[in-house]
Amino acid sequence: MTTEPTAAGRNLRLFCVKTQISLVRNVRGAVFPGAMGERAAKAFGKRLQAAVEARVRVEDLTDDDDLAEMAEVYHGLSPRSERGPGYRLLKATAADGETTVWCEVMSANHLTFSVSGDFLDFEEKTALLRGFVDALAEPLEFVSSRELGYLTAQPTLVGTGMRIRTWMHLGGLAHFGYLRELCNAAEVKGTLVELEHPETTPPGSLVILFNRFSLGATTAEIARRFKAFLERVSEQETEARWRLLRDEPFVFLDLLTRAKAVLKAATMMSEAEALDLLSDLRLGLTTGAITARKVNPLDPHWFDDASDRVFYRVHGRALRRKHPLPHDVDDFQPWREEALRAVWMRPLAGFSLSRELIERADEQ
């Protein structure tokens, strides 16, 4: 079972799915990308790419069709639908020789540099990214103000130009209807929560949090404060999960039993249903309410791989060869992908309910 809520600060790993840290920069003497015409944007994008390539070893992935579809899901990058005429996507490596730095040319700003992954060393990754970007400051002539700092196309990024975003699985808080309270607490602490409707749980209970301001603090301070708030959220999420197990075992048992039945029997599965089932499984696995062989409850790709933009490209083709579908289902893309997603999810039904949960439910 989970540790008691007092140890929740150490459980941040259980709830953080992935994080993206970005630094945006603009070049002196040029208007923002949104104010450029198509021809000028394309020409300027090529100039910026050449300037970066002259100083850093990069791989041009702009024309990688698979990555164009999956870049937002896996790495938090600009989706294909939002890429302007001058957009270029470059991949480089940071000074540690391991961390990938994504350089987006001509998105909302002239240059956006990002690192992403399931890391928790926010300050270290921020310093690594900043070192990479600062090395380009003089040759590329980033525009800045002595009073304000770096000037950006988005007012909230003026200052350090830093945006840090974390995707968190908050199934416990969502279960008890605390997402609005989360939004209120986040705003007080200079953080925003990306939710369409605070009263409605998003698919998979996945919630994105990001820093509200980039001005008035250093990048290290922003990273440190942001992580401190996430740790506070993790304390509340741990308490919520502990409360679900302790006070509502019958409800929890029903939730997991239904998940098992659907995973075993479903012949079609939408993205939203798959994400919700993965959320239920993660709740069960991280509380010890269920056990499963060959399943890593902290797999950072669980949720990403189930999404519409990723699933078929990563898993669908192989599944289609191994699991032939009825002709009419195979010919209609939406049905085909939902049927294959159900096949892909089915092995996750092989979990066992803990005796403790069953006994708690029987005694309630």
From TrEMBL:
Alphabetized UniProt keyword annotations: ATP-binding, Kinase, Nucleotide-binding, Transferase
Keyword ATP-binding (UniProt): yes
SUPFAM superfamilies hit by this protein: Glutamine synthetase/guanido kinase (SSF55931)
PROSITE patterns named among the record's database cross-references: PHOSPHAGEN_KINASE_C
Phosphagen kinase C-terminal domain: residues covered: 15-240
Family membership noted in the UniProt record: Belongs to the ATP:guanido phosphotransferase family.
Protein name (Swiss-Prot/TrEMBL): Phosphagen kinase C-terminal domain-containing protein
